[in-house]
Amino acid sequence: MSRTPPQAQDKYQLITDKLLTLMEKGTLPWQKPWFGNPPRNLIGGNPYQGSNPLLLTVQMLADQHQDPYFIGYHQAKDQGWQVRKGSKASWILFAGTSSKEVENDQGEKQESRYRIHKWHAVYNIACIDDGDGGRQLQQWIEKYRTTSSISEAKRVEEAEAFITSTGARIQHGGDVACYSPASDRINLPAFSAFTSPEAYYATALHELTHWTGHPTRLNREMKGRYGSQSYAYEELIAELGSAFLCNDIGIQPQLEHHASYLDGWLSLLKGDAKAFLKAATAASRATTFLTTQE
């Protein structure tokens, strides 16, 4: 069992290395849907939030775990269970705030608050020995098993309502899907031009994520030229934002990409171990922005 926390940079690199291995084999973890049964803490029962479902999905796929249930070392110990020898921890990130005393321009002391991020180790249930042949674990798992009862027509209806609620200006025509910051307008090909409803909505949500980057909204850097690192970074944000939103609505992401997109992401991630998590965090902010427009 390995639960000695590596340095923060090591954890970024650890997850990025796993992601790169998957991507080089043609697997994009964010296109693996977790709706209906998201990664969650087995004992607390709550689904993980923010970028953590995606981080855990990357690690699940890389470590070939099947069930999206995780547990902390001490949680397992409190149940009388053990982490199997040689098991590898999965890492999630908690955000919080801290404070320190600083002097202002007048020399007066005041409290300054700032955000902190702390890594926390959890273990997939495949790493847990409950001492009962897995029966105790299975009893916990059965509490969370769900099946989706939402029809495709209902999902389409919800997707349409969500897109309308954002207030974004969207026009249809041509064969190019894009967002123009200059005109603050989204262009999409006609619905009939897509191979499936899922492909249309995944693309629309991708462009809506770009739309959140406008200076009057979340004000992201949007001027990167095609092929540049900044362009690849913004495309990764939009890709992840679409995946998050598709999962919220219950649509499996179906985005097709030119090989140059994948090459750009691989280059970006190889050059900056923190790029993936930063993009996931930015995508989560974009998702929150869009879902609060209703």
Give your account of this protein's structure:
The chain is of the alpha/beta class. The chain contains nine helices and nine strands. The chain has helices at 8-24, 52-63, 73-78, 135-142, 152-165, 197-211, 229-249, 259-271, 275-291; strands spanning 40-41, 69-71, 82-83, 90-103, 109-124, 128-129, 170-172, 178-180, 185-188. The termini are far apart. The model has no long low-confidence stretch (mean pLDDT 87). The radius of gyration is 21 Å and the shape is globular. A hairpin with a 4-residue loop joins strand 8 (178-180) and strand 9. It has a four-stranded mixed β-sheet with strand order 1-2-5-4. It has a three-stranded mixed β-sheet with strand order 7-9-8, with helices on one face. The protein has a two-stranded antiparallel ribbon with strand order 3-6.
Short synopsis of the structure:
The protein has 294 residues and is of the alpha/beta class. The protein has 9 helices and 9 strands.
Indicate the overall shape: globular
Total of helices: 9
How are the strands of the biggest sheet laid out side by side? 1-2-5-4
Helical proportion, percent range: 40-55%
Termini, distance in Å?
A: 46 Å
Average pLDDT, all residues: 87
Give the class from helix and strand content and strand pairing. Answer: alpha/beta
Beta content comes to: 15-25%
* Rg of Cα set: 21 Å
Could you tell me the number of beta strands? 9
- Report the order of strands and helices: HEHEHEEEEHHEEEHHHH
Largest sheet: 4 strands, mixed
What attributes characterize this protein structure?
single chain, 294 residues, alpha/beta, 4-stranded mixed beta sheet, 3-stranded mixed beta sheet, 9 helices, 42% helix, globular
